[in-house]
Description:
By secondary structure, the chain is of the alpha/beta class. It contains 20 helices and twelve strands. It has helices spanning 2-6, 13-45, 50-99, 102-105, 110-152, 154-201, 203-208, 212-237, 240-265, 270-312, 373-378, 403-409, 424-428, 437-446, 450-453, 473-485, 503-516, 529-532, 552-558, 560-570, and strands spanning 332-339, 350-357, 362-367, 388-393, 396-397, 410-413, 422-423, 463-464, 491-495, 521-525, 537-542, 545-550. The strands form three sheets. The chain has a six-stranded mixed β-sheet. Helix 3 (50-99) runs antiparallel to helix 5, helix 6 (154-201) packs antiparallel against helix 9 (240-265) and helix 19 packs across helix 20 (560-570). The protein is elongated and about 115 Å long.
Amino acid sequence: MLKTLGAQIKEFKKVSLLTPVCMIGEVIMEMIIPLMMASIIDDGVEAGNLGHIYAVGAWMVLAAALGLTFGVLGGKFGAKASTGFARNLRKAMYDNIQTFSFSNIDKYSTSGLITRLTTDVTNIQNAYQMILRMCTRAPFSLIIAMTMAFIINAKLASVYVVAVVFLGICMFFLIRTVSKYFRVVFKKYDALNASVQENVSGIRVVKAYVREDYENDKFRKASDNIYKMFVKAEGVIALNNPIMQITVYGCILAISWLGAKMIVGGSLTTGQMMSLLAYCINILMSLMMLSMIFVMVTMSTASAERITEVLNDKADLESPANPVMSVTDGSIAFDHVTFRYYKDSEKPVLDDINLQIKAGETIGIIGGTGSAKSSLVNLISRLYDVTEGKVTVGGRDVRDYDLDTLRNQVAVVLQKNVLFSGTILENLRWGKKDATEEECKEVCRLACADEFIDKMKDGYNTHIEQGGANVSGGQKQRLCIARALLKNPKILILDDSTSAVDTATDAKIRSAFTEKIPGTTKLIIAQRISSVKDADRIIVMEDGHVDGFGTHEELLANNEIYQDVYESQTGGAGDFDANGGEQ
């Protein structure tokens, strides 16, 4: 874990080293001042030597100024190192997440990843700054102060040993108690972020069903859980202050009582006693700092583990050592393909699939919910890898291709269409970064998206809200289809991506595909028979198996599942789709 996190310090190693150096310089200056103060009292005030007071006083001012300078520089370097470290952690996690396959992403919730990138990184940032500054200052200050105290008077300094042992025992029990709360609390943050994310992204549904009270109650419970855990943790930490104060005041009383007797007895000077009292404060403040460090490190350990988990998680799917860099055509073959999402699953999602699809064919895919239609097409662009058998594109195993090359030639419009904040043109250019406006307009005509874009005030420069919140479901689907077409792929997969489009528009889109991109292999997953009946061939999926594969007429003649679906959609009042959606 430390090696993984430490690798992200990178260009901030220099300031990370300068921070403790400056803190050591500050401590040295602070430790010199009590000795000077003792000299002023013993050799200046009591001896009546005004010149000595001025001379040593000047050195004290210089030491204080140097201590202040070291402290300021230590704070500046520490802040730069910790914020830079946090920046690198966020970037490293984000970059690694971008490499994840679907199977990697399935391990984490969206809210969990957000918590890791925000709250967990902030905890590590604070802990790192405290380690650089306080973890250097506190032990160094403690050791020097104890050493100086024993040099001045070993008998009186033994009071500090008792105080250190007492505080050490107290801190051990405090930290052990509080650590279990912090390990739990960050998991609660995931639930809180999930509540906020769901509510904001689904605000229209919340309002449509008048579920504001329910969502508020869910958020309140998640927030209260965090509040309660922090109250318990902070309640334990709060005991640190009274314990520290008891120890400090106890040491001051003991040193004052014993020191006064020694001064009267002549074995201790007034200046030495003042120095011992100053070192007393330094020693006990160092112990307090150490206790804060232990609490912070304990709290951040859970965050460090969660961050390391993401950083060390390697993509399940990678390009081979010598990848194929071009896709010859859009032919597809499934050769005894079996697929499981989890290796230890007893029942496969897809079982012994054998299919041959020619380049340029239009293939319809139909089947009930859970029949593994999406799982089937996800294997083509290698969003997942097969468990057994192989999938070939252009005559080559998809695992032989460079991932970017393969996915640039296999355009997928998923069930859950996503648009990003920005203009329509910016969203379309996800398909091709350097696409001209005319190219964008052409694919929008193919996807029938131009019909609504031309009616917008700003046309193709219309701003799209996050997630496409300001366009309808059908408009969003058409924009996503246009975006995929802009890639000019050899294979186009539409995963139920016209479900929100009226049947007339659906028919226009399919007709445009046939005329404009005849060489592209088209796989259309749909629930409506009308969307696939004109396909060259249709795959009927049932419980992870291919139940039928043929033309519309062939399946009507010999496939019961297809017959049932056809009858259910065309019986009774007639087929709405037969008229192209028009009355």
